[in-house]
Amino acid sequence: MARLEGKVAVVTGGANGIGRATVLRFLDEGARVVIADLNEANGHETVNLAAEAGHGDAVRFMPCDVASEEDIEAAVQCAVSDFGRLDCIFNNAGIGGAFGSIVETSAEDWDFSTGVLLRSVFLGMKHAGRVMLEQGEGGSIISTASVAGLGGGAGPHCYSACKAGVVNLTRTVAAELAAFRIRVNAVAPGTIMTDLFHGGYPEGKRAQVLDKQPWPEIGVPDDIAGAVLYLASEDARFVTGETLVVDGGQLAKGPELFSQKPDSTIFTVIGLNKGSTGEGMEIYKRIKRDT
Question: In the chain, where are the structural domains located?
């Protein structure tokens, strides 16, 4: 029997990268899935891939701004109205967010970034949790954290702070909902070869990662999808409040992915990375610093 037979899931950011890999893996394991994503072109492409694999009747796409409570609630309700229930939500949508020195980061970019990276997780937990409580049959809430949320040196300050928030929110809500058999966990990827990470230059990024990562192979979206499948399934029935690190040993070694020297990119380039939303990256200015 497939591991998610008869289950219904919502996957935010499900149109690309880790989200898409998870959607396709869930479908293969018997689930019905609602994809909630801002990028409509990628969303429809993912639906087509699912249909080609024989899962066309088991998938829906909902355009979704994950920072909007109305949109998250609509995605959750789509699962209930189209498939009759909700058993799992994977709060996965993300962007690179604000980057550059803290002294140059605008409050507007900070707020936009935290809306996508942290507010969205709160909203997913809130609205999926409500449905699961009403159903009275438990459920699984999973969110994408990051090794950047578990130590310094693995991401820009705003991204790292949000991912640390996801880790702690996961622990707190797990304790709150455990009595109702609703499991709340997170997965913390290391560097995974997605469009969000490589920005169209996978080979150059590959060499950079393998120089920092003990495991000799680069991480791919399917590696994370397998971990999420475990957390969504009954194999993890006694696991809650956990953040599962999937990083090829980066955290064990020390994730020094971003140089902290004054002339490094993190201090000299200011902008906002909107990831795979279709809106791309903005660079506002470059700063020359004397070292």
Answer: 8-286
